[in-house]
Design goal:
Elements: H1 3-6, H2 12-25, H3 35-42, H4 68-76, E1 89-93, H5 99-106, H6 110-116, H7 135-144, E2 147-151, E3 177-178, E4 182-187, H8 193-201, H9 205-208, E5 218-223, E6 229-234, H10 242-249, E7 254-260, H11 267-279, E8 283-288, H12 297-305, E9 319-322, H13 331-345, E10 348-349, E11 356-365, E12 369-378, E13 381-382, E14 386-389, E15 392-400, E16 409-410, E17 415-421, E18 430-434, H14 437-479, H15 486-503, H16 506-509, E19 515-522, H17 525-535, E20 545-553, H18 558-567, E21 570-574, H19 580-588, E22 593-596, H20 599-613, E23 617-636, E24 639-654, E25 658-663, E26 666-671, E27 673-678, E28 681-682, E29 685-687, E30 691-696, E31 707-716
Parallel strand pairs: 1-2, 4-6, 4-7, 7-8, 8-9, 19-20, 19-21, 21-22
Antiparallel strand pairs: 3-10, 5-6, 11-12, 11-18, 12-17, 13-16, 14-15, 14-18, 15-17, 23-24, 23-31, 24-29, 24-30, 25-26, 25-31, 27-28, 27-30
Helix pairs in contact: 10-11
Length: about 725
């Protein structure tokens, strides 16, 4: 059906009006004179009525009169339903996300991340689940997966409830029971502290210590003939173990200060007195080695006066006992004095309730695992008790005394070895018993959390102090440049440095000094400025000169690679990219391109490169020493060779190694031997105590009494002394 036939009209006026409306749309060229003859000739008997659509014509831009073909085609089509636009899944992202963290946030497996990075400029072989992805790659992966990124909001961390364990309140004095005194032996090194304990408990601990010097705190329970028990702590006397001595005084009831009668008050003696005073512990002075002829106990008492230790002989309250620990003289008098002082102090403790104690020393036993030696101060320790110390906890599996004998219980004043710790707790920590394993874990978790918070607080204070110091120095320096921008200032500094180099003589400019040229590229001005400010702190020019060839903003370009090739430098980028073609060009020209997104990582990398420019140092390791006992000449062919007869005094002489000849303390020759013989036989190695004859490769005058040293050489890498301050 022709579209004209569908437009039935009532009369010419209506037709004229309809044509006018249609014509006003400008979608078809229909003149009003064409309607009447067409309608009358085709359908003379058509009903006289106006089509309803003509009264309200469609005036939208999409409206147009359809052809017959289009109308039939549209009639066959079903009306299409408009589907709502699907919203993309949002993925919360944050800085420094790892591959595994991104996969978890996207609810995908790690293989999906690798697939999304195919055919891009990234080394997939070096990508591990814990590898950190840059922001660019994170957004690329999310976009390729049909998702959209969303920066994660920083969650306000809730303040954790304090779940730490603490000591119990003081017990009722009526419930306290007498306990053995804990006595600490203090004094200068080699004044006889451990020998004194040996004599008291008839053991040989001193002989087993390295070099005869106590290297750790030993805790022992000594049974006196009178039936009394005394817990002794033996502490090191060497200067390096001051912390151990301090730890011993804080768990003790009485201090026995051992002073050698022939040496008097020494440095560690003074330190021990100070530890006892800080802990407010009474002192008994044991003047040892009184059996020696040069012993002078009165001199010791007078020297103690200078440190506010007034003996009874001088009107004070400090007991002094003259003893000989080696021969066992007067030891019972010392023990009785200790027991008497303990009775005066009325030492008592609470034997009931939760256990409290202090760790004296810690170690790891191959069969028992982590083991601690502790002194119990409250409660009674038994197997199965749950203990907490520091950031470790234990369920007591085994208990031993100092001789390795199993114990069933340990009461206050008794030293005990405890096995069952999950980790080795540090010495000096307080032991507290808790109700259950769950409670122990809560305490340990809280202490770890509290330590982390404290460390973060201290680190923040240090960072803020460094930032303030750096800002103040930067402002002061910036004032000298007036209103210049940082770029202008850098240019001015570079020009000034260039002018100075032109004024130098050529022979001084072309020096053999180490030099590391670098190019710095960053994402923004502030990043480049921050890096350059750190480089301004470089103060190791005598080791290697650090030269900034160029700095700028933007991705690494071919120009940067060419400049680095010219000056044999390194290109450093911060939060920028280097295209695959640039990387290939750099690899072809053997130029290093190093890109980082953390400033201190970049500086650490630079420190390593500076260290690589330093020459290796040669360390000598002495293998053997020999003394020249005699010299004589032997005929080899037509030549006379000077031979030195030597005896090896230390180590061994190896002919393959290097030798040096020392005459009156000065090295007069260094090199290799031409021969090494034992009697008439050529040998390669001469050991301690053996005699040999040797000759050197040059005509060196060997004399009786000279020293021959055999040594090996080892190259060791140096590290730059530059410390950027973080």
């Amino acid at each position: 059906m022709n579209w004209r036939v569908m437009l039935t009209v009532e009369n010419v006026a209506y037709l004229h009006r309809a044509c006018k409306q249609l014509h006003s749309l400008s979608y078809g060229k229909v003149h009003r004179t064409q309607w009447k003859p067409v309608l009358s000739s085709a359908y003379p008997m058509c009903p006289v009525q106006l089509h309803p659509r003509l009264w309200q014509p469609d005036t939208s831009p999409q409206a147009r009169l359809l052809t017959t073909k289009e109308r039939k085609k549209s009639a066959k089509k079903k009306p299409q339903q408009i589907k709502p636009k699907e919203e993309k899944q949002e993925v919360e992202i944050m800085n420094e996300m790892t591959v595994a963290a991104l996969a978890k946030a996207m609810h995908k497996d790690i293989d999906h991340i690798y697939e999304a990075l195919l055919n891009v400029d990234i080394n997939l072989d070096a990508l591990e689940p814990d590898s950190v992805l840059s922001e660019m790659w994170i957004k690329h992966i999310i976009k390729k997966s049909g998702m959209k990124p969303k920066w994660a909001k920083l969650k306000e961390e809730k303040v954790k409830e304090n779940k730490d364990a603490a000591r119990r309140p003081p017990a009722d004095p009526a419930l306290l029971t007498p306990k053995p005194p804990v006595v600490t032996i203090l004094g200068h090194v080699d004044h006889g502290k451990t020998t004194l304990l040996d004599s008291l408990r008839k053991t040989q601990v001193a002989a087993m210590e390295a070099g005869g010097i106590t290297q750790h705190i030993g805790a022992f329970l000594v049974h006196l003939p009178s039936g009394e028990k005394i817990a002794f702590l033996d502490t090191p006397g060497h200067a390096a173990f001051s912390a151990m001595r301090a730890r011993g005084t804080h768990v003790t009831d009485i201090v026995i200060l051992v002073v050698a009668a022939e040496d008097g008050v020494m440095k560690q003696t003074e330190e021990s007195i100070q530890h006892a005073k800080n802990a407010k512990v009474p002192i008994i002075v044991a003047i040892n080695k009184c059996d020696k002829p040069e012993a002078d106990p009165d001199r010791v008492k007078k020297e103690l006066l200078a440190h506010d230790v007034v003996c009874e002989d001088y009107g004070g309250d400090v007991q002094t006992i003259n003893i000989s620990a080696l021969k066992g003289d007067n030891l019972m008098a010392l023990a009785e004095a200790t027991v008497t002082l303990a009775e005066v102090l009325e030492l008592k403790a609470d034997f009931t309730g939760l256990v409290e104690g202090t760790i004296i020393e810690s170690s790891v036993d191959k069969g028992k695992g982590p083991v601690t030696t502790a002194v119990i101060q409250r409660g009674t320790l038994r197997k199965g008790c749950i203990l907490v110390a520091g950031k470790s906890w234990a369920k007591v599996r085994l208990m031993f005394d100092e001789n390795g004998k199993a114990m069933e219980a340990a009461s206050p004043g008794m030293p005990v070895q405890i096995a069952g710790w999950k980790e080795v707790p540090p010495a000096g920590e307080v032991i507290l018993e808790v109700e259950s394993e769950q409670r122990a874990r809560e305490v340990v978790d809280w202490r770890i959390y509290a330590e982390q918070q404290e460390k973060m607080k201290k680190d923040l204070e240090v960072i803020e102090a460094k930032q303030k110091e750096h800002t103040d120095a930067y402002k002061k320096e910036r004032e000298s440049f007036g209103n210049m921008t940082w770029k202008e200032r850098r240019t001015a500094m570079y020009q000034a440095k260039k002018r100075l180099s032109l004024l130098r003589p050529k022979e001084r400019v072309q020096s053999d000094k180490n030099k590391l040229p670098v190019i710095i590229k960053g994402d923004v001005d502030g990043s480049v400025e921050a890096i350059l400010n750190i480089l301004d702190t470089y103060d190791a020019d005598e080791e290697c000169e650090l030269e900034v060839l160029h700095f700028g903003i933007g991705d690494i370009s071919e120009k940067d690679v060419t400049l680095a090739e010219t000056f044999e430098g390194i290109v450093y980028g911060f939060n920028v990219n280097a295209s695959k073609s640039i990387q290939q060009l750099a690899a072809k020209k053997d130029i290093k391109i190093k890109i980082h997104n953390i400033i201190y990582r970049l500086i650490e990398d630079l420190q390593e490169e500076l260290s690589c420019t330093l020459p290796r140092t040669v360390e000598e390791h002495i293998l053997g020493e020999a003394a020249v006992l005699a010299t004589f000449e032997v005929t080899v062919g037509k030549k006379k060779v000077l031979v030195a007869g030597c005896r090896v005094q230390k180590g061994q002489l190896d002919r393959k190694m290097k030798f040096k000849l020392i005459h009156k303390g000065d090295v007069v020759w260094s090199g290799h031997l031409t021969s090494l013989k034992h009697h008439q036989d050529d040998i390669s190695v001469v050991k301690t105590g053996m005699e040999c004859g040797l000759s050197v490769e040059k005509n060196i005058e060997l004399q009786v009494g000279d020293e021959v040293v055999c040594f090996s050489e080892e190259e060791v890498e140096q590290k730059t002394s530059w410390d950027p301050g973080f």
